[in-house]
Write a structure and sequence with these properties.
Length: 132
């Protein structure tokens, strides 16, 4: 009897099939990991833009483009774009408190359908420089 040292066609095909299944499973996980990494990076960018814009608002001024607007001069809703993100500022006075407003800041990315929301209560007397 001859000593066969090679692999049969069935063994080679079976090995290729197992390798293809393993590669398919791993590729799905690599895709999920890379997508979540991209989403986390975008969330960090949007969060940084929102926090910087909220710090501007807390000083009493909002920069829209190159123009400086006082918070009290804005209407209840301000919509604009900054760094390719949509920024919406909703200002709502609190009825129980005379000089406090609720500022809701929403920064969104339309392409990826991701948004970041910050809410702060701001004392208008501090913005105007009046202390009680």
């Amino acid at each position: 009897m001859e000593n066969n040292r090679g692999l049969t066609l069935i063994e080679v095909l079976l090995a290729l099939f197992i390798f293809a299944i393993a590669a398919l499973i791993c590729s799905k996980y690599f895709f999920i990991i890379s997508r979540s990494s991209i989403i986390n990076t975008i969330n960090q960018e949007i969060g940084a833009v929102a926090k910087n814009k909220m710090e501007e608002i807390k000083t009493g001024y909002v920069y829209i483009g190159d123009e400086k607007h006082h918070l009290l001069d804005l209407e209840e809703i301000a919509n604009f774009k900054e760094q390719s993100y949509n920024i919406n500022i909703f200002i709502e006075p609190l009825h129980d408190y005379e000089n406090i407003v609720c500022v809701n800041l929403v920064v969104g990315d339309e392409k990826r359908n991701i948004s970041y929301n910050l809410i702060r209560y701001i004392n208008l007397l501090k913005i105007m420089g009046v202390e009680k």
